[in-house]
Structure formats: structure tokens, C-alpha cells
Design goal:
The structure is a single chain. By secondary structure, this protein is mainly alpha-helical. Helices cover 48% and strands 4% of the residues. It is built from 6 helices and 2 strands, in the order ααββαααα. It has a two-stranded antiparallel ribbon. Strand 1 and strand 2 form a beta hairpin. The longest helix is centred in the middle third of the chain and has 20 residues.
Length: 184
């Protein structure tokens, strides 16, 4: 299964079409950042309200920070969903996820016993690191204005130069006088 192959609705099975659509949808947004942030919110919100039974013994982990843990967990789940559907707020959501994960350590049973803390930290870091892709630009170069798409196999594109580049570094004022700069 080639993810770059076009979808042929007449020949492909419905599961293949769903996979290709999901792959295209998740490629346009910080999908993994949203997933880790979303999954990090569940243990943070769950463990303060959990009632674990081991035979006849009941372990209640309810703490005074239960309401705070619920708020932090719901906010992390909301940030995870927002990263999926509003990718323009990825910087805010990443910083907020990291801060909420740090606050969850003292508030909600060590950040959901470190599970929610680590998942939210990874999700926030991925949200900050994600950058939307840009389509490849068509570069004009070569003989007679040939583009990269129409250039022949032997044509080598000419390097781009800007007007601010100089031939020698010693000609600029920053490198004059043996590399020393004057501040005044």
C-alpha cells in the first residue's frame, strides 16, 4: 500500500479509501501532538476519582485536589482536540499543555502517576515543534529560463544570489580592520 498512490474509488476497497483520507487529514495538522495531549488528560482526570478494589480492600485515591485534577484533565483533552481541528493555535496549545502538565504534578496524584504528565509533556513539545508544510516552489534557473520541472538531465540550476552578497568578506564594514568592530 503506497501512501502516495492516488485513490481510485472504483477499484479500492472502502477501508483503503478511509485509510488514505485519514492519512491526508492527519498529515495536515499536528496529529500526534494532539493525540499525546488528549491521552495525557485522561489519567490526570481519572486517578483522583478512581476507586480500585483489590478483593475486599477498596483503595480510594480521592484527594483535595480532585476538582483541580478534573479541570486540568478536561483542559488537556480540549487542547488535544483543538490541536486536531484548529492547528493555527499550536503554539498556545503546546505551551498550555506543558504548563498544565507541570501543574498536574502537585495537584493530581503526581500527574496521573506520571503517565498523564509524560504524555502531556510529549504532546506539548510536539505541538511546539510542528510546522505546517509548504508546497514546493518552482525555481527558475538554467538556460533560457528553464524551470526545474522542464530542465533536462544535463542542466544544472544556477545558484541564487542576492543583491546584498559581496565577493569578499573583507569588503564589508563588519569585517574591516582585521575583524575588530568599533562600537562608537
Amino acid at each position: 500500500m503506497n501512501p502516495q498512490a492516488p485513490v481510485d474509488a472504483a477499484r479500492d476497497a472502502w477501508l483503503t479509501r478511509v485509510y488514505y483520507r485519514f492519512h491526508a487529514w492527519s498529515g495536515e495538522r499536528p496529529f500526534w501532538a494532539g493525540l499525546f495531549t488528549l491521552l495525557g488528560g485522561f489519567p490526570i482526570a481519572y486517578f483522583p476519582y478512581a476507586d480500585i478494589r483489590l478483593g475486599n480492600i477498596s483503595l480510594a485515591m480521592a484527594t483535595t485536589g480532585g476538582a483541580g485534577a478534573l479541570i486540568i484533565g478536561v483542559l488537556l483533552i480540549t487542547l488535544g482536540l483543538a490541536l486536531w481541528f484548529q492547528q493555527t493555535i499550536r503554539i498556545f496549545a503546546g505551551v498550555a499543555a506543558i504548563l498544565l502538565a507541570l501543574v498536574s504534578l502537585p495537584v493530581s496524584n503526581l500527574g496521573g502517576f506520571f503517565m498523564g504528565f509524560f504524555l502531556s509533556m510529549i504532546g506539548g513539545g510536539l505541538a511546539l515543534a510542528w510546522v505546517p508544510g509548504r508546497p514546493a516552489e518552482e525555481v527558475t534557473a538554467g538556460p533560457a529560463g528553464a524551470t526545474a520541472a522542464t530542465a533536462g538531465p544535463g542542466d544544472v540550476p544556477a545558484p541564487r544570489t542576492t543583491e546584498t552578497e559581496t565577493a569578499h568578506a573583507s569588503e564589508t564594514t563588519a569585517h574591516a580592520d582585521g575583524g575588530r568592530n568599533s562600537a562608537g
